[in-house]
C-alpha cells in the first residue's frame, strides 16, 4: 500500500519524503522495524517511541509517524506528523489490513473479572454450532490450527489488525475477544465496530501510574464499548451497569441470577465435585421464559454468570440450543479455576486471580464446596500498586484457613518489600490466620503438596495460564501444572 493512502487514514501531514513510498507493515517497536515497515512513535510511561525513531530508520524502516518533528532523521525518509500517534496507528492498521473485522461477527467482552472464561465459553458454543471462531485475550490468540502468544490482553492495534486479517483469510467467520479498558483508552481497538459487546462486572483494578487515574475513569473507559457495538449484553446484577450504559447507542440485553433480566438463572445450583472436576449444574430461562438445564465443568456462582453471558450471545445470534449445551459442557479454560489432574485425596486448582476482587470471588466459590481445609498459595507482582498487595493479603487471610506466601513475577522489585505489604494486608483481614512464608515459588508448591490432607482444596493463584516467572530482570520457564504433576509422580513411590 502506498504511503499516501495511509496518510489519508491517519489524517496527518507529510513533513518530508516521497508520498508514493510503498508500505508493507506497521510497527511501534523499533526492534521490529524492517524494510517496508512504517514506524509509529508511541509515547509511553517509561519510554517514548520518538527517541527510537533513528534506530528504526537505521534498521530499514520505510518511514516514521510522529507527534512532533524529528529533525535528526535523514532528509529522504518520509515523516508524517499527526495529533495522536496511537489513534493514527489504529486507523492506518485498519486501512493497511483491509478492515478484516468487517468480514467476521465481532464479539467484544469487557469487565473486571470473567472476561477470559466468558470468551472461551462463547467461542466453544460458536464452534459447537459449526462456526469457525477466533479467540483473542489474556491466554493469547487462537483459531483452528493456530496459537499465538500475546503480550497484552488486547494487543496493540497493528498486531490486532494483523491477527484479524490472518483469521479472516483462514476462513474464520467470528472473532471473540477480550476488550480491556486500557485497550479502549490506548486506541488499540479504534476502528472496530462490534456486533455484540458483553459486560461481565466491575470492581477497582488497573488504577495507578500508566493505567487509570481513578475508578471513575476506569469505569468510563469500559462504557466506551457500548457506544461501539450493535447489541450490548450486560450483567443486570452488577451495581455499575447503569453507569456503564451511560451514553450507550446499542440495543441492550441483560442477564442475571434471580432478578428481572432477559436471561435469568435461578439459585440454588447443584455443585459437582469429583476427582479432577469442580463443576455446577443450573437452570436458566431466556426471553421465551422456558427453563432449561445446563452443566458447566467450572465451579460456582460466578461461572453461572459467565455462562449466562454466553447464553445471551447465543440467543442474539440465533444459535441452536443443542450447540449451547454441547459448547458449555465441553468448554475448558486454562488457568481459570483449573483442577490439576492428580491421583490424590485432595484437590489442587490453578487460577489467575491476582487482585482482591478476583481472589474474593474465587475463595468464596471454593468455600461453597465445603473443603476440609482451604489453603491458598499466592504472591503479588512487582512494579504494581501496593494496594493490590494489601488487598490480596486481606482477602486471603479472611477467607482461607491457611496461607502460603511466595513470589509472583517480582520483576526487579525486592521480594521482601512485596511480602511485607501482603503481611500488612493479612493483619487487617484476620491476624489469626496461620501462614508460612516460602519465597521460592517452586519450593512453596512442594510444601503445599507435602502438607495437603484428604478433603482439602489447595488454591494456587496469581499465575493461572502463565508458563514463566519474572524474577530479578529474568524470565524463567515455570509451568505450575508440570511442576505439580512431576512432583506428585516422584512422591507416589
From TrEMBL:
Keywords: ATP-binding, Cell cycle, Cell division, Cell shape, Cell wall biogenesis/degradation, Cytoplasm, Ligase, Magnesium, Nucleotide-binding, Peptidoglycan synthesis. Residues 109-314 form the Mur ligase central domain. Coiled coil: none annotated. One of its GO terms (cellular component) is cytoplasm. ATP binds at residues 111-117. Residues 22-93 form the Mur ligase N-terminal catalytic domain. The modification N6-carboxylysine is found at residue 222. Carboxylation is probably crucial for Mg(2+) binding and, consequently, for the gamma-phosphate positioning of ATP. It is found in: Cytoplasm. UDP-N-acetyl-alpha-D-muramoyl-L-alanyl-D-glutamate binds at residues 30, 153-154, 180, 188. SUPFAM superfamilies: MurD-like peptide ligases, catalytic domain, MurD-like peptide ligases, peptide-binding domain, MurE/MurF N-terminal domain. Pathway: Cell wall biogenesis; peptidoglycan biosynthesis. It comes from the Bacteria. Its main location: cytoplasm. InterPro entries: Mur-like_cat_sf, Mur_ligase_C, Mur_ligase_C_dom_sf, Mur_ligase_cen, Mur_ligase_N, MurE/MurF_N, UDP-N-AcMur-Glu-dNH2Pim_ligase. GO terms for molecular function: acid-amino acid ligase activity; ATP binding; magnesium ion binding. GO terms for biological process: cell division; cell wall organization; peptidoglycan biosynthetic process; regulation of cell shape. Its EC number is 6.3.2.-. Catalyzes the addition of an amino acid to the nucleotide precursor UDP-N-acetylmuramoyl-L-alanyl-D-glutamate (UMAG) in the biosynthesis of bacterial cell-wall peptidoglycan. Belongs to the MurCDEF family. MurE subfamily. This is UDP-N-acetylmuramyl-tripeptide synthetase.
Amino acid at each position: 500500500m502506498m504511503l499516501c493512502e495511509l496518510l489519508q487514514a491517519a489524517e496527518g501531514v507529510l513533513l518530508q519524503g516521497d508520498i508514493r513510498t510503498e508500505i508493507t507493515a506497521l510497527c511501534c517497536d523499533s526492534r521490529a522495524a524492517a524494510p517496508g515497515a512504517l514506524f509509529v512513535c508511541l509515547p509511553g510511561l517509561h519510554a517514548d517511541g520518538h527517541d527510537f525513531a533513528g534506530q528504526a530508520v537505521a534498521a530499514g524502516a520505510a518511514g516514521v509517524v510522529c507527534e512532533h518533528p524529528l529533525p535528526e532523521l535523514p532528509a529522504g525518509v518520509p515523516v508524517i506528523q499527526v495529533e495522536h500517534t496511537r489513534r493514527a496507528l489504529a486507523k492506518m492498521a485498519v486501512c493497511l489490513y483491509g478492515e478484516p473485522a468487517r468480514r467476521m461477527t465481532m464479539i467484544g467482552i469487557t469487565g473486571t473479572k470473567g472476561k477470559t472464561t466468558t470468551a472461551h465459553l462463547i467461542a466453544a458454543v460458536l464452534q459447537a454450532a459449526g462456526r469457525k471462531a477466533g479467540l483473542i485475550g489474556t491466554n493469547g490468540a487462537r483459531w483452528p490450527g493456530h496459537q499465538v502468544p500475546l503480550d497484552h490482553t488486547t494487543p496493540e492495534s497493528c498486531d490486532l489488525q494483523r491477527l484479524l486479517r490472518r483469521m479472516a483469510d483462514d476462513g474464520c467467520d467470528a472473532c471473540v475477544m477480550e476488550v480491556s479498558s486500557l485497550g479502549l483508552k490506548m486506541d488499540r481497538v479504534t476502528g472496530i465496530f462490534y456486533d455484540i459487546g458483553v459486560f461481565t462486572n466491575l470492581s477497582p483494578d488497573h488504577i495507578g501510574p500508566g493505567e487509570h487515574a481513578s475508578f471513575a475513569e476506569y469505569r468510563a473507559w469500559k462504557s466506551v464499548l457500548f457506544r461501539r457495538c450493535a447489541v450490548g449484553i450486560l450483567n443486570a446484577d452488577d451495581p455499575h451497569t447503569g453507569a456503564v450504559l451511560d451514553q450507550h447507542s446499542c440495543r441492550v440485553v441483560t442477564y442475571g441470577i434471580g432478578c428481572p433480566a432477559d436471561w435469568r438463572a435461578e439459585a440454588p445450583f447443584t455443585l459437582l465435585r469429583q476427582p479432577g472436576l469442580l463443576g455446577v449444574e443450573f437452570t436458566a430461562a431466556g426471553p421465551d421464559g422456558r427453563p432449561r438445564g445446563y452443566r458447566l465443568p467450572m465451579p460456582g456462582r460466578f461461572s453461572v454468570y459467565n455462562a449466562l453471558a454466553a447464553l445471551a450471545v447465543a440467543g442474539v445470534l440465533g444459535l441452536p440450543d443443542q450447540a449451547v449445551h454441547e459448547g458449555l459442557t465441553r468448554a475448558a479454560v486454562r488457568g481459570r479455576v483449573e483442577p490439576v489432574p492428580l491421583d490424590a485425596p485432595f484437590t489442587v486448582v490453578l487460577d489467575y486471580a491476582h487482585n482482591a476482587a478476583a481472589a474474593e470471588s474465587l475463595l468464596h466459590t471454593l468455600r461453597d464446596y465445603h473443603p476440609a481445609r482451604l489453603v491458598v498459595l499466592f504472591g503479588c507482582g512487582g512494579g504494581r500498586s501496593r494496594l493490590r498487595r494489601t488487598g490480596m493479603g486481606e482477602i486471603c487471610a479472611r477467607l482461607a484457613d491457611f496461607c502460603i506466601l511466595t513470589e509472583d513475577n517480582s520483576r526487579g522489585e525486592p521480594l521482601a518489600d512485596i511480602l511485607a505489604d501482603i503481611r500488612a494486608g493479612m493483619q487487617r483481614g484476620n491476624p489469626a490466620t496461620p501462614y508460612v512464608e516460602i519465597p521460592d515459588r517452586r519450593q512453596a508448591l512442594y510444601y503445599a503438596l507435602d502438607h495437603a490432607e484428604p478433603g482439602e482444596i489447595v488454591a494456587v493463584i496469581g499465575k493461572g495460564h502463565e508458563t514463566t516467572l519474572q524474577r530479578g530482570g529474568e524470565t524463567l520457564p515455570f509451568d505450575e501444572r508440570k511442576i505439580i504433576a512431576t512432583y506428585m509422580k516422584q512422591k507416589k513411590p
